Amino acid sequence: MWKIFHLLINQINDKVASRKSIENHIKIFNPEHKSGITLTGSFILSLPISTRYAKILTDVCLKSLAINQTSSIPLACLLVSCLYMESIFSYDYKLSVRFGKKEKKKKGNNSSNDIGNIGNVGSNDNYDNGRNKSNNINNNLMNLFFKKNNDEVNQAELSSCSSESSYCENTFSPENYDNNMNNNVLEDFKLKFDNDIDFYLNLCTSFYFADDKNNFCYIMHLDKKKMDELLKLSNYLIKIINVKLNTSINFDILEKAPSELSRRIIHYSVVQGFIDHFAIRSDLIRNDYTRNSNLSFNNKKAYFTQNMKSPVYINSTSVLYKNRPYPKYILYNYIMKNKKSYVMYDCLNINDSDLGKITNVCIYINGYEKIPPAKYDIQNDKIIVCVKPFYLPCSQYLPITTKELSENDFLFYNYLAFFILDGSMFPKMSNFKIFYSHSFNDIINCNHQNFKHFINALRSNKINNRAALISKWKTQNNFLKKEFLSLIERKFNKCNQRLINDFWPPLDSTKIGIGV
Predict the structure, then answer these.
(1) pTM above 0.85?
(2) Coiled coil: which residue ranges (predicted)?
(3) Cβ(280)–Cβ(272) under 8 Å?
(4) What does the domain layout of the chain look like in residue ranges?
């Protein structure tokens, strides 16, 4: 990956990205700046699961402990254990999904043929006999895969299970309901979610709290042996977390219904873990490779990823499979080959705004867009910029989206200085605009030494928002005054000295608690 970055510096067009911005991107993620194995790396290596899942779990643990949301940790243990198992569904269910679609098509074709042959019954007796024989042969073959149950469903029992609570766990049983009814329960449960990750979270927690786990597995078409292994692995992960992080977490704090905060923590960690498995809907591809390819594929359903030269599709068991329209972008866990195509598993849809918030080596941002311009959100005390992310593995531009700048972002203090000076952050600063001889680009590009002094004063004192600057002025009311005077010295004279003294700091005296 690092060789690719250095290759980009030498070959990439200046219109796409400047050499300076690429070098800054490399410095942020370059592992050469780190010596030895960090504590985080040691924790990842201690987990008995794949590195990808270990990173997801580690990220959840660190974020959850930082904000005291420990209930998301056992939830994450269940999720990574589920992903590690690759597939928790029974073999019969996977066969039914795979061959069920063919049966429906066959029945549809047969019914249309029956309608077309109504007027020719006498002339087509031989044809009907031959077709019946072939149907009998096909039915016998299908019976090898599917269980046939001739028991009729009790209508009263069906109506009693119409409610959605606890999936009618107490009333479902193998003796009363056939596979078709169970399929409906699972498919109805899938309709509640728009991605596989949320589906797995709720499915695993429901299994954990189920009174009769065998019956639950039968109803939801789960592999009982794998689900038992999932619980064992989850408990083992909890033990490692307690030893390594010196905590006392257990499954007693597991939420029956994942909270929104836990869900957001896990989603962000999964996005960071799956970001190199990024699929783009085929109609959004703009690079030369796919534009000039002669591959034939379904344009409405196909996706392209940097890991495959062929189009890939959503697998038929995924929650996303029946959603329309298909999402623009999908993060997936792995790809497998079917008879005729490649399909993605464990899919998570991601929108444009989420892409702009990702801090990852795969997402490169070449500065910030000038149109629409950056703005200061005074209510949330945040600087908002528009960015056009560039997904490096695919060399694919992503749509323009907004991003909240943090102190670790490129040019953060330059934008902070600009919004202080232009009056967006402190309206009283507008009184000094008549003395300005600089432009927006002068501050952002830091063209003069005086701007560097002003920006460095903010950085060295860790002033990263309006609240921090107000707090600084409470203890030091002449903070930034000298640096500001150096910016307006060309148009400044002794007559204006009193104006500066009366208005600095540029706040009401009631806000800072001092007389000015």
Answers:
(1) no
(2) none
(3) no
(4) 37-102+162-274, 278-350, 361-404, 412-512
